[in-house]
């Protein structure tokens, strides 16, 4: 019997050994072909956690391994739905397994558009990884598109519509993008594993036992509510302890400032960058193609940083050395408008001892909602987590969980003022006698890691 490419199964299931899920099971030829595509293989060269690997030294894992993990969790959910909750059994509340392939491909490719040090890079060059993901999936010039197009002419657009949340079946969209989806479940477990932070773990097996499809999307049974609570708390802990870690953010600030400085120097002497940093020139010019974007990865940027550390510009040289040698900026929290006035004074003190505040200071804010519920007054809202009660009716999670209710709608994070470490610990190379009073004055505003009034 012959099979169309759409339904072609591998003669023998392919497996990838994985430290989080034990094995990643690949059964479809199209999925294996996508994994082997050059656009997907590029994800091996992009770290999942960016600058966090400079705080948690084990966090060297890539977006490649995360994407495989999201695929695997999605595959397991599809198996559970088809075995126990198919549309043949439940009608419109059930799962139609004809949706499997588009769901698996969207899960695998959901991060394929990420760039090097993605969030910092996006901020500086105004790129959007989701738009690049859609472009990679739908542009005839990519291997990914050519593979998807062999399934059917409209298949690339179907996969892209899952990423943009326009796909008509909410079960498919919520499996990959919601407040408890395959993406979040994998990155929490994977990031916890590689950073060594045990409090980021939760019971994935139990969650997969209690997950259910219904006409409006995905829900969880009441007897599994505590496993969902555990997931919410784990997500909260990971954001506070890992994703918002002040040292990682301090390294992000340096990365941001050194790229800004390089862009300024390019505008002054563009011919120099054509010689030593050619792949970044289109982004300095804000005139780049998809193929030029796909040439970038963490290694390309790191190579350029090494070259920049030996250029004549003292600011760029110093910032790149601080980044490559892991010399983060220090920080202090602040909260009030009065503190902002103090910060302006602190910037003057920093400038007085020889640091340009434009490149050596920053205000960095990080906030996230551990869980949110539907808010009709908001322009945009998150898909809330639904719990199935014994009588089959749905209730929003925070209505039945006091623990989640305490976290719901509460932003977690802080505001920090970043500055050179030398302001607190002057080195022998600095003019200590000349600026001793300046250092003392600066330090008098910092108490227990926070900005205070004198």
What does the model show?
It is a single chain. With 454 residues, this protein is of the alpha+beta class. It contains 24 helices and 11 strands. Helix 6 packs parallel to helix 14 and helix 20 runs antiparallel to helix 24. InterPro entries: dGTPase-like (IPR050135), HD/PDEase_dom (IPR003607), HD_assoc_2 (IPR045509), HD_domain (IPR006674). This is HD domain-containing protein. It holds the Pfam family HD_assoc_2.
Topology:
Elements: E1 9-18, E2 22-28, H1 29-36, H2 38-41, H3 63-84, H4 87-90, H5 100-109, H6 118-125, H7 129-138, H8 143-149, H9 155-163, H10 170-176, H11 182-195, H12 204-210, E3 211-214, E4 217-221, H13 225-243, H14 246-268, H15 270-276, H16 281-284, H17 290-294, H18 298-308, H19 314-324, E5 330-334, H20 337-352, H21 357-360, E6 362-368, E7 386-388, E8 394-396, H22 397-400, H23 402-407, E9 412-419, H24 432-443, E10 446-447, E11 450-451
Helix pairs in contact: 1-5, 3-5, 3-11, 5-9, 5-10, 6-14, 7-9, 11-13, 14-15, 14-19, 18-19, 20-24
What's the mean pLDDT score?
92
Number of strands: 11
Percentage of residues in helical conformation:
40-55%
Low-confidence segments, given as residue ranges, are 374-380
Rg from Cα? 25 Å
Major sheet description? 4 strands, mixed
Head-to-tail CA distance between termini:
82 Å
Strand content: 5-15%
Q: What strand line-up does the widest sheet have?
A: 3-4-7-8
- Alpha-beta classification: alpha+beta
Provide a count of the helices.
24
- What general form does the structure show? globular
InterPro entries: dGTPase-like (IPR050135), HD/PDEase_dom (IPR003607), HD_assoc_2 (IPR045509), HD_domain (IPR006674)
Protein name: HD domain-containing protein
Organism: Enterococcus larvae
Pfam family, one: HD_assoc_2
